Amino acid sequence: MFICQYSVRSVDTSVCLSVSPCESGIVDIQPSQRIKRGLTLMCKIMQNIANHVLFTKELHMRPFNDFLKTNFDAARRSLQLCLTVVQVC
Predict the structure, then answer these.
(1) Which DSSP string corresponds to 45-77?
(2) Given this model, what pLDDT does residue 29 score?
(3) What is the pTM of this model?
(4) Which of 4, 16, 66, 83 could be 47's S-S partner, Cβ–Cβ 3.0 to 4.6 Å?
């Protein structure tokens, strides 16, 4: 068994792309602005965990950096477990 590191990075990035719940068909009604903002912030956090990147430019997001650091390895291990494949020769 092996893990393709390049695939992990690509999947990390694409898994957390934010799509509105209404556009994706999860809900029928448009969420309020407050709910949209919360979902956007959650997507930013998930994207940064997936990319192993801390917030630097967005000052209002910096308080989440400790949370990001705490979850980098767990997120990577979870995704690698999902992407583990049997090597075919």
Answers:
(1) HHHHHHHT----S-GGGGGGHHHHHHHHHHHHH
(2) 85
(3) 0.68
(4) 16
